[in-house]
Every structure is written in structure tokens, then in C-alpha cells.
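dumping the sequnces here before i forget
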Amino acid sequence: MENKANLKEQILTASGVNPLKCMRCGKCSATCPSYDEMEYHPHQFVYMVEKGNIEPLLQSESLYTCLTCFACVERCPRNVQPAKLVEAVRLAVIREQGANHLKPQDIPALLDPDLPQQAIVSAFRKYAK
Amino acid sequence: MQRIGVFVCWCGSNIAATVDVQRVAEELKKEPGVVFSADYQYMCSESGQNLIKDAIKEHALTGVVICSCSPRMHENTFRKAAASVGLNPYMVEIANIREQCSWIHKDKATGTEKAIILGRAAIAKVHLNAPLIAGESPVTKRALVIGGGIAGIQTALDIAEAGFEVDIVEKSPTIGGKMAQLDKTFPTLDCSACILTPKMVEAAQQEKIKIYSYSEIDEVKGFVGNFSVKIRRKARYVKEDICTGCGLCTEKCPQKKVPNEFNMGMDNRRAIYIPFAQAVPKVATIDPNYCTMLKTGKCGVCSKICGVKAIDYTQQDEIVEAKYGAIVVATGFNPISPAKFDEFAYSQSPDVVTSLEYERLMNAAGPTNGTLLRPSDGKHPHTIVFVQCVGSRCDGAEKGKPYCSKVCCMYTAKHAMLTREKYPDTDVYVFYIDVRTPGKNFDEFYRRAVEEYNVHYIKGMVGKVVPENGKLKVQAADLLSNEQLHIDADMVVLATAVEPDPSARSLATKLTASMDTNDFFTEAHPKLRPVESPTAGVFLSGMCQGPKDIPETVSQASAAAAKVIGLLVKDKLVGNPCVAHSDELLCNGCSSCEKVCPYGAITYSDKEFRMPDRTTALRRVAAVNPAVCQGCGACTVACPSGAMDLFGFSNNQIMAEVDAICK
Amino acid sequence: MQDKMIARAKELLRDGAVNRVLGWKTGEFVYDITPAVFTSAEELDRDFVFDAFTAANLSKYLVKESKKEGKVLAFLKPCDSYSFQQLIKEHRVDRENVYIVGIPCEGKVDIEALKARGISGITAIEETADAVTVKTVYDEDITVAKQDVLFERCVNCKSKKVVICDEMLGENGEIVDSDRFDAVAKLEAMTPDERFAFWQNELSRCIRCNACRNVCPACTCEKCVFDNVNSGVEHKVAANSFEESLFHIIRAYHVAGRCTDCGECSRVCPQHIPLHLLNRKFIKDMNELYGEYQAGADTETRPPLVNFSMDDCEPSIVYQRGGNA
Amino acid sequence: MQVENKEFKPLIVAFCCNWCSYAGADLAGTNRLNYPADVKIIRVPCSCRVNPMFILRAFQRGADGVIICGCHPGDCHYTTGNYYARRRMTALFSMLDYLGIEKGRTRVEWVSAAEGQRFAETMNSFVSTIISLGENKRLEDLRCKTK
Amino acid sequence: MVFSYYPGCTLKTKAKDLDKYARASAEALGVTLEELPDWQCCGGVYPIAKDEIATKLSSVRALNRSKELGRDLITVCSACHNVIKQVNHDMQTDENIVAKVANYMKLDAPYRGETNVIHYLEMLRDKVGFDTIREKAVNPLKGKKIAAYYGCLLLRPSSVMAFDDPENPTIMEDLITALGAEPVRYSMRNECCGAYTTLEKKEIAQKKSNAVLASAEANGAEMVITACPLCLYNLKKNATEHDVPVKYFTEVLAEALGIA
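..and the predicted 3d for all of it:
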């Protein structure tokens, strides 16, 4: 229980998000371009973090399908900034030893001659620590 | 030196049980200036009051201290008693030895000691009291209503019914306001025009009401009972008293491409126009921004065609100055522009409309004569998506409005229902965050929309609207089924937030009436004085005070009228004499006091003074209007020179109390 | 600069644009400067002085001068211009009766600082950008770094910009980044006991000569509350050594939001009490709590104490901030 | 609960606005909610009527603590009075602290007409603060004190 | 006009055209771009978390260098611009980060966001002016229907980027007009292309890129321009159902200016 509270605290601090501001309109999920790829949707991230129900989020692929496009941040009427929460949860996972989602040895297989290295750098920043 | 009488009340045992009242009376008798001291069981009783009156007469008292219950209980009782025997009522001070002494202390010695100190403080204050006479001012028996929407009309009608003259100042060419643009009203679905226009006609025909249409407020001076107002009657280039409203000119005017504001710019009117068929006054107005004659001096068609020669291209704005006893603000609202929320593509597709535009599209007198057609191609829409809370309930000013606009849930239900009724082949979706329907028959109405009319209410918000290939691709969240919806809609209707009319801000400054951060007028008390502004003599009616539907607006309009009538029946107003006053000899003219006065009671003028060296000098000094000042004392502290002081609570009086307590 | 000023003053006098000139003249000693009004070219040539010692803020004199017949020419340094603009804001001066020539200022020299270096018998002073040279009766020229002998207020200058003038003589400067609140912050960092000891030591020296009040450009009341029997705080001498602090607290409070931080109070204090530290405390607090505000910077902005915002901090913020408990 | 202390009886001046806090004090009385007799209330129309000079005067004359009570921000009978009071008192209190006067000796509390309980609690808490600070020696003028 | 110039890694490799034409066009417009010495990779994405410090340092180095040079900093790649501008905003608003960064980098004076970060497009609009560009467009792209693709990074979060109206931007359309072509407005121009998901979840990138180009084509676009190498890649490679040409905005700029 204590760990759970700590994790929530850590996520709130790292993200700077106050989920209590959410009025549950769902505009974040309405606007999310990656919605169909996500098991948990932006509004659920907000609600579940608020409730301290973070464990399922840690396990979810949803963490790696958020595009960080900031559309939810831009359009949220309450300034909740769901993308920041997703980022903080993702960091909580990949900052653990050996928990990187993307490993250097995976890279060569993913390459394509035209791919700008910006994509690799970005993905590394997002998926590994 | 004052001759002071001290009267210590037992209040039965309420005081006497924990305060030795005799000792208090004895001790206070020793204070300088005290020539009489007594205690009695019930000072507020008739015999108690007689004791006070007799002592005032017998001992020629110039000041009275009553040690009793809170002044909030009986200050007036004792002041009246004193006044009845010729002592100025403001020479009476109360020492509160019940609520603030006997009732909170159990130990008699402690209570007695404190009661004596409180008595001393009151005596010290009375020494510095001076007789105060409340000013009187006459009341001009005429009211001004600013804004001619349903709120203004109702207020004016009620005041006129009671027999007082009322002027309505309306900035557009006709009264009627937003209600005139509505198609039907919830929850009864009456035709808005059918219930409004008779009231407009009544206002026009009521002898006591004068309507200044196409007019604005230039300047407000004076105070409650005595306002002096400059009204600017804008040049309409048509002689209002001659024009018959036949409308011929509005058909012949060659300038046909003027966006028609009555239909939210969805069709065009001419440069000379009558806003709508039932306009009051039914008089044409020339729009100077579009009239070719006014812009280039060439045309004159309307003048040639007018049978009664009502056109006057040389007309100028005219200033009317009039006096009023009371002013009612009824400036109403506007829907906000959805331009800031372009994820809904309002600026990208004509088929994305606001609710008020939709209202006009549904209205028989609207641009489509009441047939629901898409603005882009004039085709009948089959799928319509309504989006609630556009710009309402937002966090932070740049996002939108922090408040709930209150009327959108109901009018959206109305729109959805009417659409389904007229066109059962349409699919209607309403995206909502919460459906808020408190009000008589309101929730029932909403339920009918769902249950009888099969409107699809979906809990969630629309995130993006993409106009593509003649459709509006709506991407939205359905929170209850946890899916993202993609709807190909023909029209999207945005329930945009309401905001106070932009003219309200400058009007508030002219009236020195306060506003909240959203530019709604603030009321004198949020619960108990909801139709009065904190500025005496200024009353609030309708949306200018906060979001309201029509029944609430009409209730408030009548309530404001009742308050106005209550003011106008008086011949004279008696002021509170405990007001601020400025010592002209000390005043520096710095304007600090003027800045903090919430009532605009302080004015500055240059006055000539004889200086000690016998020269005269012009100095800028402050003067307080005692009829406007409410006596808060903010100015007395802002004044750096100590020129500003407050009758009844002067610097010296309060310091004397401090000294007496700290002895 | 002095020659240019005299020349310009003469021109304006000759053209009839003004009928008198407000400036400075030397008293008994070169460093003993007093403000003075000049009415003729001869007087200007004879007495008008402008050098490193002409520190006095002339703006307050304009309260009376601007009420007189005809236009007066006043030379205002940056500091003085703030004070003057503040007086305009408070309607204390008639702007149209004053012709202002703005003059740049590179800081003024504190005679006490020179004396502290053992320099005496000064007969003349000259300055360059960063040094001053004094001639003494002992026939020697002594040059010292300017920074070492400036008034504290000049070391911590807040602005070299003349904010209001009809013309500028020389180039106008800019608002500068100043460390003027450092001394306040240092006091704030002390314990209350240390602060109390500091102020008791300082304020107990007050002899209630009223020099601070009389020089202060914010103290232009028709009648000062300390002279007014009805104010409840009328003039009295100190009975208790600390009682004088009430005079200084009330005075500081009365000028709070209006004080431009010109530093004249500390300059004229014969007891060398750092009175400006009281005024700066108010300025610092109000800047931090209610947003930056510089009195005299313009004539429109509402001073913080006659303004509010609905979400202002509560007074209890004092318990959390500023100084050790 | 009443704070008892035989040794030191502090002298406390409370400025209460007529519309909220004075009425709140009345309600405390009506509900018989005890607070020490050391508190003496001075009625003012509004917290914005309280001149810093009054507070200094009280201290000068030997008060050990001064508390100012007004309507809650936003509820001022005169709309804006307490907003000005809030700034003035913040500035004054900060200055007193700067001069080394104990911070606890001055306080501002917002008490509505309905908050009798809060009024009594506020006074009890203020009195115990003042008792813990002891006698006000730093700001009193010995000449004026007759104790 | 002299500015510091931050090209970014991709512009040195896969997106050489973006860089080449940016420099050439600037020169033609009388703007000098001085490449910042020793710049490092910005990291590609802005480190959102408040406790991320090290990942912000490379941006701060560039910003601080530009501050020392006393120049505004020009970026051209959308991703670099987003990262550097957001980090700069942190430096302006978060004392905690400022202090930590100053410690890390052993800065003499803390960096507090003093440098102006300006995107190349903003420079065209605010410093050069579209009127000047119109005059200098010797080879106007008459009749060409060009759709601007903004993507996410230039616009959002708008409170920080302050680039243009985040929902209805006009800067690239105005540029297109100035170059003599006809801008195509379409609603998907500020929706995500799929970004880095192309690496391991290609189907997302394909879906998103296809949707963008579908919208552009539906509105009549004959060409799409962008400021981001990754957007360009996704729209070219992953928008499998569409073949409207996609170019960098600098290419069409250079073409109209008669350089390319």
C-alpha cells in the first residue's frame, strides 16, 4: 500500500500533473490519434493515477503507443496535460534496471535506409533509459 | 466636556450572573465626564428606556453609554429613545457586555473587570462623539433601464405598471434582444417570438415607457435617487418619428451584401434595414458602414423612394441628458466565438455552426425559412452532432470560461428534440460531459429527448472535426463504452459558452458598479441581495449578472423592478451619517482615496484657498458625496495626510478606545 | 556638464521660456551644496554649480515652485525625475509650469566617505567616469576610485534613466540591474533578536530633527500627521529609545508605494541612520508579493497599496517568509 | 477550552468589522463559546478602516497582541474593503517582523457572521500564541503604560 | 541580420536538403546564419518529466552558447525546435531546473532562458516578412496547390511554443501564398504523422500518415510541405495509399527564390 502511494506521488511529482483538475470530459481520448492502439486511454491514465491504480498501466503496451503529439495537452479544457502523466508512468517503468523497452541490439533489424536518425534517437529517449 | 450618563443593563441574569453590574456602574461613575450612572434589570424595556430618557432630561446629558447586549441588537432602540428626548442619536454608544463578556466568561471577577474596561472604552469614545445628522436627498421618480432584451423589457413594464416613468436604452435598432432570435423556448417549446413580441409591443405602447433604441450610455453622474445620465442617440439617418416602417426602402436599397446580424450573418440584408418584422420601434436604420450614399455621396435611392421623406443623410448623433432615481443594468450576453476552438473546424466549414446559428436555421423567419438545410450546399443534413460545453468549464482564461453557462444543456436538448421531431430521418448525437437540468420540468424534458425522440446522448467529448469530401468527420470519445467514435456528420452544432456583452465593462466603469473576473456584474450580496449592485441605486436584471435561462431572467427582472419601485416611492432618501469627510485644509489632492473608494463617492476639484500669508492659492482637494458614501473607511487609511476621516468611527475615537483598553 | 547647463539655462532665460532656474549652489564648503533658484545670467555664472557633490534631489522644491508665477527650469537627475513624476501622479506639481532638462548621472560622492579616507580641506572636485580627484587646501590632488566614495544609493543605482523631461542634456541612460535589495535581504536573514538589536542601535540615535521628513519628496503633505494634534500621533520627542521607531515605521508606511527610493532620507540623516532600508523593505515586499512596481516610473500604474487582486496572499505569509523566527 | 495562565495576563486588542467578525463574536457569545477575557474587541465598520497607526498605538500603549478580523475575501460588505486591508496588513506585519518584533503578535483572520465557533477558536489560539511570546517589551512606550 | 543557427543531426545526414536550402534561402534573403560551434544532438524529443535534467543539458549548451554570442537562435527542424524551445521555457520558469543545470554545467552565471529561440518559419514571418519574400520570389510557383503539414511539434503545447494558432495555423499557408502558390487548407495538417512509432509499430505510423495525406488530397493538394524530417519520412514511406509528393518547405522556398 505504501509503495503504491509512493509510486503515485512519484508520478505526480515527475509529471507536474494534478489529476484532480480533470472533469472527466474525455476530450483527451476523443482527440488521441493513437486511441485504437491503446489498451488504456488518456482519460483512463488520469483516472487510474488519481485512484492509485497504477500497476495495470505499468504493464501496458499503451505506454509505448503514445505519440507524445501533445494534442491531449493542447485540447484539454482543464489543463490536465494527460501526455505528461503517460510520460511519467513510462519513466517509472523504464528507469528500472534492465527494463528498457528498446534495446540497442534490436535496432539493426528495424533500420531502413531512408529512416532519419531522429527517429532512432527519439525512440531511444522514449523507450530506454 | 461632555456630560455622560452610563446605563448598565442586567439583562435579567444574562449579564448580572457573571458581571457585578452594580460595581460596573459604580466604577464607571468615577470616569471623567460621567455625571450619572445606573443599573437596571432590562434597559431595553419601556421602563428601562424611560429611565434613560428621564436621566437625559434631568441631568442634561450630552452623551450616553449603555452597557448591554450587542449594538447589533438594540443600538437602534436606544438611539431612538435618546432622540425622543432631544439628544442626537449618534451621541449614544453601546458597550457590549453580554455577547462579548458575560456570556463567554464564567468567573464573575473576570467578567466584571472586562465589563468595566469595555465601558471605559465606550465612554472614551463618547467624549469624542459629535452630533451627526443624516443627510436627505430627493428622489427623481424615473428609472433608467439599460438594455432592451427580455430582462430590460420586463423590468421596465413592471416599473411602469406601478406608475413610474421608465426609459429603456437599447444599443441596437430594436428592442427584443437575444430572445427575439430564438426559435422555441424550453421546456414548453413555445414559440419565442409569440411570447416575446406582445411584450415588446406593450412596452412600446405603455405611456410611461420611453424607448431610446440605437442609443448608448455616454456618461453617468450623480448617485442613488439623483442620477444624471447622458444618452447618445446614434444617428440612424432616418427620422424615427416620421418613418412608418413600411419597409419599401429595405427592398429597394441597391446595397444587398450586408451580413444580416439577426440571422447570425447567414444571409444578407440591405444597407438600410429593419432588423426583423416585429421590430420595435419599427423604423428603418441606415448602416453607415455599408450605405453607398453615406460613404461616397452617390445613391440616394431610399430617400427618393420614401413616401414620407423620413431619410436624413445629414443626421448626427444626438446627446440627451436625463435624470433618474434608479438605474437597472440589463445588458445581457453574447455567445463566445468558437474561433479559439478550431479543432471543431468552425472556421473551416460553414456546416459547423453555433447553437444560436442553429436556432436561426430552425426558425421560420431565418435564412432558410425554417427548413433545416446545410449552409454549405443547402442539402438536408442526415447526421447532426451536438457538442456541449464549448468554452465553458475551462481552466484558465486562455482556454475559455471557468463557469458553466447553464442554458446549453437545455437548449441542446431542445434542438435535438425539435430536429428529430421535424426530421425523423436524421441521426442526432449529443456529446455531453454532464447533463445539467435543474429546473421545473427540465429533467423530464431532457429525458423525453432521450426516450421519446431517440437522441443519442453520449458521455464524452468531441476531440476533432475534419471536413473532408463534403462530410464532417467527427472523432469523439464515448467514455461509457470506452471507445473512440468516428462519425461522418453533415452538421456539427457547438454549444458555445455565454459571456457578458462587451459593452458591460465600460458601462460598469461609468456606473462605478463592480464586476467579477468574468465581467459579470456583482450583486450586493450573493444570496440576500441578488438583484442589487453594491452601488446604491444600481440594480441588476438578467444575464449581465450571471448565466440564466428565460424564466430566471424574468423573475430577476421583476425582482429588480420591485426594488426600483421600493426606491422610487420614497420622496426622500435618508443617508447613513457615518460617512467619510475630507479636511480640505489637510488634503494634498493625491487621489489615493478616490482609487480605493468602491462607490465613486469621492471627487476632486480645484478650490481657491486663502493661505496663511494672505495670498490665495488654487488647490486640488477631495470632497466626499455623503449620499453615495457607504462609510467603509477604506479612504481614511489610504489618505497619507490624515485629511480623510470617518464620522462615527474617527481616528481619534478609535484611538481613544485603544487607549482606554490599553490603560 | 556644468558649463553646458549654465549655457542652456541662460538661453532659456533669455528666450523667456522660463523666468527662473532651479539648480544647486555651493555653500560654505564645496561639498556643502544647497538647492537654489536663479533668476539671472549673472547669478548663474556666479553661483550655479553641478559636480560630483550636487546630490540633492530637486523635485520636492517644484511643489512650491510650480505654483508660482511663470515657468521654472529644473535640472533633474534620473533619481529626481522619478520623484518628480511621482509628484505629478499625486497632482502635487503643475507640470506645465516646469521646464525640465534631464541630466545624466554617474553617481554622487559622499563627503563622509572622503573624510573617512582622511581627506579634508577639500577645495574642488573633478570627476571622470570611474575616479574623482579632489584638490585640498594642502595643495595636493588626491584621486580615488569613484566606486569607493559614492553614496550607497549610487553604488546600488536602480536607474540611470531620466523618466520625464522636456529635453535631455547629454545622453539618457537605462534602467540598471541593481543589488539594492541585498542589504534588506541580509537583514531578513538575521534572527529577530539580531534585527531588533540592529534597529534599536540605529533608531536610538535618532534625534528627531525631521531632516528625513523634510527632504523626502514623498513627504509633501499640506500638514504632516506628526504636526497634527488630531492625528493621534502628533509630534513628540522620544521617551523610550525605541519609541522613535514608531515615527520611522509610520513615516515609512505613509510613503510606501509612493517612495521612489531616491535615498535622500539616508543622505541627510545627521546620525547616519540607514533609513532607506525601511523604505526598501516595503518596496521589496510589494515587488515580491504583488509584482514589480516602481513609484514614479509612470503616472498610470496603480500603487500596490491602493490596489488589490482577488488572489493576493494572506497576511499570514509573513509567518512563512522573510527572516528567521 | 479556555487558556489558563495565572502568571501573565496578556492584553489583546481585536479589531472586528461590523458586518462579519463582530457578528461572529456575537454568535460566539450567543453559543456561550469561551475565550479569554484578555481579548477586547473594538468595532470598526470594515477591516479596511483599521489604520496601521491604530495597531502601533495599541502596541505602544502596552498591548501584547493585536488581531484584525474581517469578512472572508470576496464577502466584504463594501465589496473590496478586506482586499485593501489584506495588503496593508501584510505590508505592516512584514515591516514589524523586519524590525525584530515577534511575528506572532499580529494576525489577520477572516471570520464570517456564521462562524461563532471559528471566532472563539481563533481567539483561543491567538491568546495562547501571545502567552507563549510573553509580554510585549519591544514596541511599548514605557511612558504610557500605567500597569 | 545575423543569427545563431542550430541545424540538428538529421539535417547533416538524411535531411541535407532541409539544411542546404535553408542556408541558401537565408543568404538570398539577406540573413546570415552562423552555425553554432560544437552543438550537440537535442535528443529528438523533449524530456517532459520535471525530474529530467541530464537530458536537457545539450539544449541548454546550445542556448547558453547563443546567449554568450548575444544572438537569437534559429532552428529549422521541427523536433529540434520543439525540444530547444521547451527546454528554454523550463529555464525561464523552473528555478529548480535552473539551479541544477547551473551546477551540472558549472556555469558562471545560471542560464535563465535569455536566448530567443526562433523557428526558421518565424524568422521568415517576423524578421524578413512575407512581403519581402513575395518581392524576392523571382520564380513564383504559380497555380501550384500546396498543402502545408505542420504536425505536432511546431504548434504544441501552444502555451510554450507560441508559434501560431495551434488549431488553425496560417504561417505556412501565408508563406505558400507569398511564394505565388495556392495554399490548401485541410484539417489534418496539425495531426500526428505517427512519429517514432515507425520504428517498432509501423502500422500506427502508416495509419496516421495515410489519414493526413487523405485529408490533404481530398482538399486538392498537389504537393505537401513540412519542416520535419521524420514527418517527411512517414508521409513518404508510410502513407502507403497516397503518392502526393512531400517536400521540405525550404526546398519550395529556394525554388521560388530561384536558387534551386
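Chain C has a mean pLDDT of 89.
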